[in-house]
Design goal:
By secondary structure, the chain is of the alpha/beta class. Helices cover 36% and strands 24% of the residues.
Length: 243
């Protein structure tokens, strides 16, 4: 479902990893280096087409391209939020639901999706993964923020309350912090060839949200209260290879 999804007043800085907040530094600050290392291992130096799922205003791609000066990427920026995408410097922009992307099979060499899967209804996430793989000709990198691998329902339940609108700035629809086991099951069902390159707990989700949305007073206190016992996300990164 298309529509603007609020990212928070401080989102741009955090998406670059420019934050002293520990969760933000781990979730955002190290992604470009990790993705760069993966792509160097998968592709020789050269020119490639690249689709960025959840491109926002281009913060992550700017960092990734800076980390890979020996590569030349022709970027397709994809996001559900047209307002944010209009500020993205990519030469080609597509406003689209990630489960239905208007690209041909294998149209791009590389796809990257940093924290895009979770911001879809749970029942659509398998299709999102399928679309990422479908449009990719060579390699896709999917980085995910989800619940505990054993009991993802704890964070899923807490996040449903957190983003229900009880804190107006955090109101979101169409998301699910699915666990990594569920994501891997979906990829196996689709017959995707993948490997997991990162899996770790990142604590301090409440502080991240408070920083990202500049919450204060009652809203900040309620955010911490609703995440008691599950003030974390699991960060998992997979590489999907084609052919």
């Amino acid at each position: 479902m298309l529509g603007a999804k609020p990212q928070g007043e401080n989102a741009a800085a955090l998406f670059h990893g420019r934050s002293s907040q520990s969760a933000a530094a781990l979730l955002y600050g190290e992604s470009a280096e990790l993705f760069g290392e993966i792509l160097r291992g998968e592709l020789p130096e050269g020119s490639y087409s690249l689709a960025d799922f959840g491109a926002h205003r281009g913060e992550f791609l700017a960092d990734l391209c800076a980390a890979l000066p020996e590569y030349d990427f022709s970027v397709v920026a994809i996001d559900v939020n047209g307002d944010d995408l209009s500020c993205n410097p990519a030469p080609r922009k597509i406003v689209a639901d990630f489960s239905r992307v208007p690209l041909r099979d294998g149209e791009v060499d590389v796809s990257v999706a940093r924290y895009s899967v979770a911001w879809n209804f749970c029942e659509n996430q398998k299709q999102v993964l399928k679309e990422i793989a479908r449009v990719t000709g060579r390699v896709a990198i999917v980085q995910h923020q989800g619940g505990d691998p054993i009991h993802p329902e704890v964070l899923i339940g807490a996040s449903e309350k957190l983003f229900s609108g009880v804190i107006p700035k955090l109101k979101r629809e169409g998301f699910c912090f699915s666990g990594e086991a569920q994501v891997e099951w979906w990829m196996k069902e689709e017959g995707l060839i993948f490997r997991k390159v990162q899996s770790r707990i990142v604590e301090g989700l409440a502080g991240l949200l408070i920083s990202k949305y500049l919450l204060g007073g009652t809203d900040a206190a309620l955010t911490r209260e609703l995440l008691v016992g599950c003030d974390y996300v699991f960060q998992t990164t997979w590489v999907i290879t084609k052919g």
